[in-house]
Structures are given as C-alpha cells and as structure tokens.
Amino acid sequence: MLDTKVRDLVNEQINKEFYSAYLYLDFADYYEDKGLDGFANWFDVQAQEEMDHAMLMRTYMHNNGEHVVLEAIAKPDLTYEELDSPLKAALEHEQFITNSINVIYKAASDVNDYRTMQFYDWFVKEQGEEEKNADDLIKKFELFGKDPKGLYSLNQELLARTYAAPNVTV
Ligand code: OFO
C-alpha cells in the first residue's frame, strides 16, 4: 500500500501521461495535415512513449496493491499559429510534467517512501531528456526550419526516429 497522498498523485500522473500522449497525437495530426510526415512521426513516437509512462505507473500501482482510477482524458485544445507552435508547446508541457513528477517525489520523500522515490528516479532522469529533446527541436527549427530546403532536411531527419520500449523495470 502507498501513502494516500502519494497514491492519489501517482493516479493523477497516470492521467497526465495519457493526456501527454493525446497532446502529442494532436501535434502529429497537425503536422500530417501540413505534409510534414517527419515531424508527425516524431510526435507519434513521443505519444507511444507517453503511453508507456502511464502503463509503468499503472503497473507500479498494481504492484503496491493500489486500485487505479482512470479519469477522463481532456481534449487537446491548443491552436497552432506557426509551424513551430507545437514545438514550443511541447517544451512548455514537458516543463509542467517535470514539475508534476517532482511533486510526487517530494510527497514520497516526506513520508520516507523510498520505494516510490526509487521508482520515480527513472522519470526524473527521463524528464531531463524530454526537456532537452524538446528544446533541441526548437533550436533546430530556428536554425533550419524557415528555409524550405532546411525544413525538408529536418523533416527527413525526424522521419528516422523509431520507437523503442523504455529500458526500465517496475
Ligand atoms: Fe511522460 O514524459 Fe513527456 O510528458
């Protein structure tokens, strides 16, 4: 069993991770509509990773004898004015998720729940990578995305991203 505050935060985080997947699918659909299949692919892969995050946390709840309450997933309602709007929204979203993971970590620390802290160590590191990836993409777009040839090359690069299951055990 988990401390009730920790349990509720983990349960909320499961919803946030599924929402992240929804958000990234919305970004992918936007780029699909624009004919940028590489950008769409990048966010499709990102969405798969988010679903993995949710499933890992769901398994963690099960392994600790906790019931998961699946709440409704919000509709992504962002509007994208420019081609790089989703890239900027992605960084902002990852910063929000980092903060959310930190809140869980702190709550676990407050009740000496070392098991949850250890489980979330992987996510703390992962968030560092998520923010860096989002920031790198913004920088690349700023450098190459405004020129048609540069945009084509960047799109090709993003098309090469493939999904890999997370290397973590619960
Ligand atoms: Fe689950 O890391 Fe992004 O949101």
The CATH architecture assignment turns out to be Up-down Bundle
Domain count: the total is 1
Count all strands and give the number.
0
Distance between the amino and carboxyl termini = 15 Å
CATH level-1 class: Mainly Alpha
H/E topology pattern: HHHHH
Associated small molecules: hydroxy diiron-OXO moiety
Mean pLDDT: 97
Structural class comes to: mainly alpha
What fraction, in percent, of the residue positions are helical? over 70%
Strand content: under 5%
In DSSP terms, counting alpha (H) and pi (I) runs of 4 or more, how many helices? 5
At the fourth level of CATH, the homologous superfamily is Ferritin, core subunit, four-helix bundle
